[in-house]
Write a structure and sequence with these properties.
A: about 280 residues; 8 helices; 10 strands; about 35% helix; globular; B: about 260 residues; mainly alpha
């Protein structure tokens, strides 16, 4: 029914999957992304050698879920997102994105919110969103509604005609989120989207993102180095170590929403994960 | 609020223009004083120059002469911009093409302009085509090099964004690449125009066509510096006006999104 879309058909390196059985069953139900034993190498600068950036990464993101990958800076999290987004190749394993049943067009729709907003500053807010709608061949008749709906969703109703440079950093990032949601993505990739914002703005953005989740119900793969952010936002967390990037723990979080960052359960889980995280990451050096 | 900011901007631009206006005025005064010691046909003062210009432009035929030259400049300028922009763009975007044309651009840039003028006359005769070819051969390498440099400054991040959202080649060019090149395109436009008109006058003086250049030659043969200056200066004024009224205004509109640079 929903045609499987694979970026790359090569399937080598088929070691036993790391993902647990429960997750496997989830795949059968309705997953947005499945990644199997993904391996990616980069040529090492200076020598002819290669070093492994991503090693045997396996994970699943189910429809409508918020999944975080937490790892230290420079561990290859962004590379992983770029592989999923199809702008970076990989050397082994498989990445499959499953378009939602009934979604029009060819191939999966991927929304991507980068660390910096990456807006086209010479276009108005509206035209920045129109850019991705045009790229995804969304009928022109729907543009106006999609722009208005998604700007309202991120709290920027009425900013259609404004230029990005007239907006604050937080507002620019909201436009980037609206842009990603406008194409009604099968999967929304977020790469430390709040790391460039000041603490107060970032906190507000996290609350607002929770609210957006309630309404738009997107499937999100979120990358961060901030465990408290991940615990607060996610349904699942994958913890990643560095050199090479490997997933060493998967946690399902069933704290009911709406959550508060001050909630004792959020705090306790965070403490526990921080302890484990550093014991693994520091042991690896 | 808008009225206030416009007023502010007008005041600010007036105070910025003031030093320039003062030196210009001082220069004109010195020129007038010095000219009193010479015959007007050898060194005319500003007053006499204005008189001569009025005399020239009260003859309707003069406008045809100017028009003829402007047409030539325009043709050479447009062709140079199109070839130069296209070449600069592909050189910046395709490594293989860059390697291929890299040294050719340098060859063209260093080839003596006067050789092009002679060669064009030999190849195309004393015609308008010769003048236009001369302009194009001299101007387009400058444009290509400028646009090529501009492509080096393109933000890779935005290209990546476009690729993630599956923008096709045309959308990428229109909305991501060209807008980032606009500052380079504008500087190319202005360089191209100022080079084009100077080359056009030289080419006309060689005898390739009528136009202002030929008038200059005629007056040169009669050793009338006053008339040569009257033609030259009036033509310069036309070109400065084109720069101010067309390019600056266009740039202001294009860069409206960048408030701090819109002057």
């Amino acid at each position: 029914m929903s045609a499987q879309y694979a970026h790359n058909v090569q399937r080598i390196d088929m070691a036993p999957a790391v993902a647990d059985k429960a997750m496997r069953q989830g795949v059968m139900a309705s997953s947005a992304i499945t990644i199997d034993n993904l391996t990616k190498r980069f040529p090492a600068p200076g020598s002819g050698d290669e070093f492994v950036v991503l090693k045997d990464i396996s994970l699943t993101v189910d429809d409508g879920k918020f999944v975080s990958i937490v790892g230290p800076s420079g561990c290859g999290k962004s590379t992983l997102l770029n592989v999923i987004a199809g702008i970076e190749s990989y050397d082994g394993g498989a990445v499959a994105i499953h378009p939602k049943a009934g979604s029009a067009g060819s191939g999966p729709r991927i929304g991507y919110v980068f660390q910096s907003p990456r807006l086209l500053n010479w276009l108005t807010v509206e035209n920045n969103i129109n850019f991705v709608l045009e790229a995804h061949k969304v009928p022109r008749s729907r543009w106006r509604d999609l722009v208005a709906k998604n700007l309202a969703m991120v709290g920027l109703a009425g900013q259609e005609r404004n230029y990005p440079l007239n907006l604050s950093g937080g507002m620019q990032q909201r436009v980037a989120i609206a842009r990603a949601l406008a194409i009604e993505p099968d999967i929304l990739l977020m790469d430390e989207p709040f790391s460039h914002l000041d603490a107060i703005t970032a906190r507000k953005m996290r609350f607002d993102l929770m609210e957006i989740l309630e309404r738009a119900k997107p499937t999100i793969l979120f990358v961060t180095h901030d465990l408290s952010e991940a615990v607060f936002l996610s349904d699942h967390i994958y913890m990643m170590s560095t050199k090479p990037a490997q997933i060493f723990k998967h946690v399902a979080i069933d704290i009911p929403r709406p959550r508060k960052p001050e909630d004792a359960r959020v705090f306790d889980l965070e403490k526990e994960l921080v302890r484990e995280f550093f014991s693994v990451v520091e042991a690896k050096g | 609020m808008r009225a206030k900011s416009t007023k502010h901007r007008t005041l600010a631009s007036l105070s910025r223009a003031l030093p320039g206006v003062l030196t210009l005025a001082a220069g004109i005064v010195v020129w007038q004083v010095v000219s009193l010691f010479f015959l007007p046909v050898f060194l005319p003062g500003p007053a006499i120059l204005v008189e001569r210009m009025v005399a020239i432009y009260s003859n309707p035929a003069s406008y045809l002469v100017v028009g003829e030259t402007l047409l030539q400049i325009f043709e050479g300028f447009v062709v140079s911009m199109v070839i130069g922009t296209a070449l600069g763009l592909v050189m910046g975007l395709k490594r293989s093409i860059e390697l291929f044309f890299d040294s050719w651009i340098m060859v063209l840039l260093t080839f003596p302009a006067v050789c092009w003028a002679f060669l064009s006359v030999l190849w195309f005769g004393l015609s308008q085509i010769a003048a236009i070819v001369t302009i194009v051969l001299i101007v387009f390498p400058f444009v290509a090099m400028n646009i090529w440099a501009g492509t080096k400054a393109i933000e890779k991040n935005l290209i990546e964004m476009g690729r993630v959202y599956k923008a096709d080649r045309s959308l990428m060019l229109r909305k991501v690449l060209i807008p980032q090149l606009m500052p380079y395109i504008f500087s190319s436009l202005r360089i191209a125009l100022s080079l084009s008109w100077k080359i056009a006058l030289v080419a006309e003086a060689f005898g390739t066509g009528g136009g202002v250049g030929q008038r200059l030659t005629n007056w040169f043969q009669e050793t009338r510096v006053d008339m040569m200056l009257a033609w030259g200066v009036s033509f310069m004024i036309v070109m400065v006006l084109i720069d101010l009224l067309v390019f600056r205004a266009w740039a202001r509109r294009t860069f409206a999104w960048r408030p701090q640079l819109a002057t």
